[in-house]
Write a structure and sequence with these properties.
Four copies of one chain form a homotetramer. Chain A is of the alpha/beta class and about 240 residues long. Chain A contains seven helices and ten strands. Chain A has helices spanning about 15-20, 20-25, 30-40, 60-65, 80-90, 105-115, 210-220, and strands at about 5-10, 45-50, 65-70, 95-100, 120-130, 145-155, 165-175, 180-185, 190-195, 230-235. A nine-stranded mixed β-sheet of chain A has the order 2-1-3-4-9-8-7-5-6. The radius of gyration of chain A is 18 Å and the shape is globular. Chains A and D meet through helix 6, strand 5, strand 8 and strand 10 of A and helix 6, strand 5, strand 8 and strand 10 of D. Strand 10 of chain B pairs parallel with strand 5 of chain C. Chains A, B, C, D: It holds the Pfam family ThuA. Chains A, B, C, D: It comes from Dictyobacter aurantiacus. Chains A, B, C, D: This is Trehalose utilization protein ThuA.
C-alpha cells in the first residue's frame, strides 16, 4: 500500500557539507537518512536538494510526487520564488507536504500558512517529550503516550501559525517551555503536516519513533480524491 | 481493502413496516437497500434494527463493528439509554459513525455533539443540489461538482450543530434555503459524518452518488490508530 | 461595561465545609473568593451552591445570568439532571459558561462537549507554567508570555475533549507533562471556556493573573447577539 | 464605544471613475458610501485609494488604523508588494481586516490565507439570500434569519479558502449555487472577515443590512489584546 506513494524528500543539504559535526551524524545528508527509513517502509522515494538545477524540483518531479518532505534552515532565502510557486500550486492541487523542524521558516510553509511562523528557540539540548494530544489520529499509529527525545533544540510558544485543523503533538522541554509540535492543515486539496523535531547537530532522524511519525504523516498526506476544479464564469443551472 | 471494514447498518425500521408507500420504495427496509449497496462495494456488512433484542446492538456486535450507520426518525425516544451509552463509548473508543438524514435528532447524535441539532424542514419535494465545498476530501471521491437529487425533503439553517471540523457538502433547495449537508467530526478516537439526504418516502438511497458518498464516508470513518488511553493518577516522569 | 454583565458563580461548596485545610484557604468558599474578585472588577455577581434548593439555580436565576462559572469535584453525581438540562438549554440559548478545574468532569461540561473529558492527574504540587498560545485573544489581555503557579495539581494529556475552537493556554508541569489548559468552544449561541487551574487545597484562585483570566473569560463569554431561532416546518420562499 | 475604533476604508476606486453606470450608484466611490454609513454608526473613519501616493496607506495611516476594509477588483496587480507587506504585518500585529466581494482575489487576502481564493461567478443579477448559519455570532447582531439582496453577482463553490474558523453566512442564488459568504479567520493577532456581496454595478452597499453586517464586522475585528511578542533565542526558565 505504501509502495504506491511517491515521496520526494527535499533537503537544503548545506549543513551536512559544511560542518563535520553534522556530516558525522548524517553522512548521506538528512535526506539520505530519511530516504533510507522511508524506503525500508516500502515507499517509492526520491530526493532533491537546493544546489541541484531547479533545486531538484523539475516539473516532471513535481508531477510525479504524491507527498513532499521539506527540511531547510540556513538558506531559505536561496530557494527561488518560481520554484516555491510551483510547489505551492502542487500542494493546492493535492500534493501532500510534510514540513520538518526549521522548515517552519521556509518560503513554502510561510506562503501556505500566511503567517510569520516565528517562535522561540534555544540550542542547549533540552530533553523533549512530545505528548500525543490526538489519540486515534493516523499520524500517531504505533506511538505510545509520548515520544521522548533525549537531546533536542527547544522551540517555544507563541508559534506564529494559524490554529491547526488538528493538533496532534504538544512538546514539553526541560527548560520550562511547551510547543505545538505536530500540526495538521488542509490547504486547497493538499494536506500539510508540520513536525517539529530534527535539529541538524543531533541524531533525531535516526530515532525510530520520529521515523514512524514521518512515515505515518506521509501516508496521511497522500492525496486520495484530488480533482480538476470548475471555476470562473458559469451559466445558471436553474432558469 | 473495504473487505476488512465491518459495517453495521442500524435502522429504526418502522416507516417501512407501517407505510405501504415507504415499503414500496424500500421493501427490505432502508437498511436492506444500504446493506446491498455496501456489500457490492466489498464491505463486510450486517444490519440491526430497533425492534430486535437490544436493538440488535449487543456487546458482541458493537465490539465487532468498525463503522456504524444510523437512520432513525419516528421512534428516537424508544432507543434505550443504556444502548446509547454503549454506542457512545464505542465511538469515543474509535468506532466510526455515519448519521443519516433524520438521525440528526437521534439520542446518539445529540449526545456526541452536545447541541440541540434542530433545523428547518419542509416535505414538498424540493430539488436538492449538494455542492462539494471540500474538494480533495476522501468523502467526495468520484463525485463531481455537486450531486443533484430531483426530489427531497428540505432541511434548512440554522442547523444546531457545533462548527464541523470539516464541512464537505452544502445543499441548495428550490424553495430558497441552504443547509450544511455533509459534516465531519472527531469525538474521542471516533470519526463521525453527518449526511443529510434520505427521506423515507423518496428513493434517495437508491441514488448511485448518494451510495458512493456513504461508501466513501465508511472508508473515511474506519478507525486506523485506536488505542487504550492512559488516564488517572500518574507518577511524575521527572524528579 | 463590566457592570452590565450578570455573573452567577456556581460552586459545589463541599470541600470547604468538610476540610479545615481547604476552609483555611477559602473561608467563604471558592465562590466567595471569586465573587469578591469579580465584584471588584465591576461585574454584577451572585453565587449559587449545590446544597441550596434547586442548587441555587432557579429559573429566575438562570434567566438573569449572562455568564456562569462552574466549580465542582466530589459531588458531580449529586447535581440533578433536570437542573443540568436547564443550564444546558440556557447555554445553547446564549449564556456564557466558564468551567473551572475539576469541573471538567461535571455533568454540564460532559453534556455540552459530548466526550468523556477524562485526563491524567497527580496531587504532588508540581509547578505549573501556563503558556499563551493565542496572543491577541481577549482572554489573554493583560497576561504576559505565561502565568506561573508555584504549586498546582497536575493535569495531563490526552484530555478527552473535542478539538477546541481556539486553544488559548497550554500548561507545562515540573513532572514532565503538558495540558491544554485554556479551551474555547461555541455551542449553540453560547460561548464556553474551560480553564484548568484551581485545586481546592491550593490558593490558586487568589492568584491575580488567574483572577484576571477568569475576568477576561467572563467578558469574552458574555452573549452579544443571542436571538430566538426559527426552526421546524417552514413554507418555501421561492415558488 | 464605536467612536474609539479607527477604520480605514481602502478602495481601488477605478470602476467608479471609468464607468458612468458605476458612478451613478457610487458617486463618491464605494469607499464614500461605506464611509458615510460607518461614520453614522459612530466610527472614526478615513479612506484610502489605489491612486493616492502609497495607495493612501502610509506608515502613519497603518499605525493609526484598528480595522481596515478592502475593496478591489480590476487592478489587484497594481497594488505594490511593499504596501501589501506592510498591511500583512499590521494584520499579524493585530489590525482587523474586512475583505469585501472581489477583494477575494486581492494580494493581501491571498497572502494571508495562503490559497488561490478562486471561485465561480456569473453577472446576471441572481437574487441572493444570505443565511445566518452562526446565530449568536456578533457579526449577525440585528440580522434576521437571512439577508435578501434582490440583484447580485453570483459567486459559487468550491471557494478556494482554508476552512473558516467560523462560517457565519451561506448564500443561496436563484441560478442554483451556494457560497460561503461570511468567513472569520484569525491570523497572527489579527481578525479577518470575508464578506461576499458588493458588485460594483449594483447598489448593494446602500442596503441597510449589508451596512449593518459590515459595521458588526468592524466591531468584531477590532483588536483588544494585541501585544509585542517574545520570540527568538531565549534562556531556559528551569535549571
Amino acid at each position: 500500500m505504501t509502495a504506491n506513494i511517491r515521496v520526494t524528500i527535499w533537503n537544503e543539504y548545506r549543513h551536512e557539507r559544511k560542518s563535520p559535526e553534522v556530516a558525522k551524524i548524517y553522512p548521506e545528508g538528512i535526506h539520505g537518512t530519511l530516504a533510507k527509513a522511508l524506503s525500508e517502509k516500502g515507499y517509492t522515494v526520491r530526493t532533491a536538494t537546493l544546489d541541484e538545477p531547479e533545486h531538484g524540483l523539475t516539473d516532471e518531479v513535481l508531477e510525479n510526487t504524491d507527498v513532499m518532505l521539506w527540511w531547510g534552515h540556513m538558506a531559505h532565502g536561496e530557494v527561488r520564488d518560481e520554484i516555491v510557486e510551483k510547489v505551492h500550486k502542487r500542494v493546492l492541487d493535492g500534493m501532500g507536504l510534510v514540513v520538518l523542524h526549521s522548515g517552519h521558516f521556509s518560503k513554502i510553509f510561510k506562503k501556505l500558512l500566511g503567517t510569520d511562523c516565528d517562535l522561540k528557540w534555544r540550542e542547549t539540548n533540552d530533553k523533549e517529550r512530545m505528548w500525543v494530544v490526538a489519540p486515534g489520529h493516523p499520524i500517531t499509529e504505533g506511538i505510545g503516550d509520548y515520544i521522548e527525545i533525549e537531546h533536542e533544540e527547544m522551540y517555544g510558544e507563541p508559534f506564529g501559525i494559524p490554529e491547526p485543523d488538528t493538533l496532534v503533538f504538544v512538546s514539553w522541554f526541560t527548560g520550562g517551555e511547551v510547543f505545538r509540535s505536530g500540526c495538521c492543515y488542509t490547504r486547497g486539496q493538499g494536506k500539510i503536516f508540520y513536525f517539529r523535531p530534527g535539529h541538524e547537530t543531533l541524531p533525531t532522524y535516526h530515532h525510530p519513533e520520529v521515523q514512524l511519525v514521518i512515515s505515518n504523516a506521509v501516508r496521511w498526506a497522500n492525496p486520495t480524491a484530488a480533482r480538476k476544479l470548475i471555476r470562473g464564469n458559469t451559466p445558471a443551472l436553474e432558469k
